[in-house]
Amino acid sequence: MTNYMVVGSGVSGISAVRLLLEKGYPVLLFEPKRCESQQQAEALREKMKEKVFEGRPDLIRAKHLLSLAAGDDARPKAASFQGIDICVMSPGVPLDTFSEDFIKSGIQIIGEVELGYRFAKGALAAITGTNGKTTTTTLVGEIFKSVNPDTHVVGNIGVPYTQEALSTRDASLTVAEISSFMLETTDTFHPHVSAILNITPDHLNRHKTMECYIQMKKNITKLQTMEDVCVLNHKDPVLREFGQELIREKKCRVLYFSSEEALPEGLYYADESIYLAKKGDLRRLMHVDEMKLIGIHNYENVMAAIGICLAMGIPLENILDTVRNFQAVEHRIEYVDTVRGVKYYNDSKGTNPDAAIQGIKAMRDPTILLGGGYDKGSSYEEWIGAFDGKVKKLLLMGATREKIAQCCEKLGFHDYELADSFEEAMERAFFLAEPGDAVLLSPACASWGMFENYEQRGRVFKDLVYGLKERYGA
Question: Of the CATH numbers 3.30.420.10, 3.90.190.20, 3.40.50.2300, 1.10.760.10, which one belongs to the domain with range 334-472?
Fold first, then answer.
């Protein structure tokens, strides 16, 4: 019997443990975060007991539960690994936390996504990239559902793969949003169709170098064959060359999409329409006014989704019907409301400069921009350079506000203010905005330190907008 150790007691970790318990495997759960007090350590133990151990104590060696008390070393002792065969790492836990100790102990290291894949059935499409993953994954999921109700949408989108894996059947369709963190720990993971939407600098505080980050993204094709397809953004020079490499080495088939030029084969955007070129045949699929999404980046997401679904064998009619009716996902250039003639947009998912650039590009009105947050080591020159006369005022908050302000001064952009809190930034935005303006939350930074995640940040933004409307009217 294989003995597992799951690292991380968040949503992914708990889901992984539940899957293993249901399949009858012994599991040990380890939470690597240092507890600040003995009371916090006890609370963590109780949380684990409540969520993991109820019902199947015979399968868990509860006495070996590893939980850090105040002052404990952040690394488990080597003796703790005795009898462990496979370690399942939650994606939020850096791989170098103690992977060297695991390797020395002869333990195989896999990720939660890899574990889910090993128990899943049916056809799989997997989507990665720096930006656009959630919108594209959600859209692909809706298209899949239009032909097959046995569809599962999993991964970085908020539903652990291990949560859905045992519900899949041979006829199931699964689409997975896959982060670079998840691709650090795949082994047998093999999507029938993969997609890399784009690659721009992100998460360099964890991956250390851009080269490493790029390689993690490329890992999504690692086990694909010539019976599989990889959908790539032709506009991205790294991905354009990677596609040629895949073709030369006959690793898998490649389908390109582009928002910049007509392609002899693939999908492209031109004249405000999306075209499909295939074996000398050119077909205009739709005008972008037929869809509810706005912005070039969303047209790229749509082309990627169309390519993925065509490669998965979905009829074109189903694909286009779903695209026409698809609404923007929450927190991604999401229209919230209009207050006193000012439109408010929630782009909290703009957690890096490149994503936030797309938010700016989508705005058609003079914009009050809310930016700043956790510092992931990003550079903000391109983001500020993309303001292009649209940004009337930049309101900065969080740990990066001084860093971004210095960048603004360097580039000659002086229409910014510093705020001590999110609420203060919102109040200033309300009083600065005039009828016909837009207020955009697109921070170019992660939310950590001020919020639990970008979803909470977006919800707070929306609540504040609704509060303004109650007080001041439409």
Answer: 3.90.190.20
Q: What is the pTM of this model?
A: 0.73
- Domain ranges within the chain, ordered by starting residue: 4-112, 120-325, 334-472
CATH of domain 120-325: 3.40.1190.10
Q: Which superfamily does 4-112 belong to? A: NAD(P)-binding Rossmann-like Domain (3.40.50.720)
pLDDT of residue 205: 55
Q: What is the pLDDT of residue 99?
A: 59
The model's pLDDT over 30-56, given as tens digits with 9 standing for 90+, comes to: 776 654 555 655 665 565 555 544 333
User: HEC string of the chain?
Assistant: CCCEEEECCCHHHHHHHHHHHHCCCCEEEEECCCCCCHHHHHHHHHHHHHHHHCCCHHHECHHHCEECCCCCCCCCCHHHHCCCCEEEECCCCCHHHCHHHHHHCCCEEEEHHHHHHHHCCCEEEEEECCCCHHHHHHHHHHHHHHHCCCEEEEECCCCCHHHHHHHCCCCCEEEEECCCCHHHHCCCCCCCEEEECCCCCCCHHHHCCHHHHHHHHHHHHCCCCCCCEEEEECCCHHHHHHHHHHHHCCCCEEEEEECCCCCCCEEEEECCEEEEEECCEEEEEEEHHHCCCCCHHHHHHHHHHHHHHHHCCCCHHHHHHHHHHCCCCCCCCEEEEEECCEEEEECCCCCCHHHHHHHHHHCCCCEEEEECCECCCCCCHHHHHCCCCCEEEEEECCCCHHHHHHHHHHHCCCCEEECCCHHHHHHHHHHHCCCCCEEEECCCCECECCECCHHHHHHHHHHHHHHHHHHHCC
Whether pLDDT at 382 is above 60: yes
Question: What pLDDT is attached to residue 275?
Answer: 98
Tell me: the pLDDT tens digits for 331-356?
A: 888 889 999 999 999 999 899 998 89
For the ranges 21-35, 140-154, 182-196, 256-270, the lowest mean pLDDT is seen at 21-35
